[in-house]
Specification:
By secondary structure, the protein is mostly helical. The protein has helices at 3-32, 43-48, 57-60, 83-92, 103-122, 128-156, 160-180, 184-189, and strands spanning 64-65, 81-82. Helices cover 66% and strands 2% of the residues. 11% of the residues are buried.
Length: 192
């Protein structure tokens, strides 16, 4: 085979490979475009019509949350507050003394933040804005739980690990009592 012939074959193979790649790239772009005019949309237009844009719950979920007031029973028409308000309220508790903080309430905030942060990465499309809110809720709860546990261990003259082990033993004993006498469940929960 002569040198010019070898160059021709190389050029043809290169051109064919390049054309195949370009066809694949065009198909890939076409598959992501929802309409024929999506290629001509502005960045705001693509965001507005995206699967996580303002037309969907994924955009508004971090902004709105429907909690019930802590001392009132659930009502048919709940009040609406900002979910960031939970994070800000928890952060404002940093100024309060640890003796006035509730361990169970802050543990609930910590668990809620951890569970819902994980959920935000499982759903499709992933909601990073909601994940950030819930991650900060976890951080606030974990900080407050640590403060309360340190305060309680200082009162007893224990280390933090000893205090945690004691709390675990108390919880285990309570569960053991309820397993032995299921009638106490209503008493513990507050039923009649």
């Amino acid at each position: 085979m002569s040198a010019p012939r070898l160059g021709l074959r190389f050029g043809q193979a290169f051109r064919q490979n390049f054309q195949n790649q370009m066809r694949f790239a065009q198909r890939r772009y076409q598959s992501t475009a929802t309409t024929a005019d999506a290629a001509g949309q502005s960045a705001f237009g693509r965001f507005f019509n995206s699967p996580i844009g303002p037309k969907t719950v994924h955009f508004w979920a971090p902004i709105m949350k429907v909690p019930y007031p802590p001392a009132a029973p659930p009502r048919p028409i709940p009040t609406v507050s900002l979910q960031w308000g939970l994070v800000l309220a928890g952060a404002s508790d940093f100024a309060r003394p640890a003796s006035s903080l509730s361990l169970t309430q802050n543990a609930a905030l910590m668990c809620t933040g951890a569970i819902w942060t994980r959920w935000c990465f499982i759903i499709k499309p992933q909601n990073l804005f909601l994940a950030s809110v819930n991650f900060l809720l976890f951080c606030v709860g974990a900080t407050q739980v640590t403060r309360v546990m340190r305060y309680q261990s200082e009162l007893k003259g224990q280390t933090l690990g000893e205090n945690m082990a004691e709390k675990a033993q108390e919880g285990k004993a309570k569960v053991g009592e309820l397993v032995e006498d299921p009638g106490k469940i209503k008493e513990v929960v507050g039923g009649k």
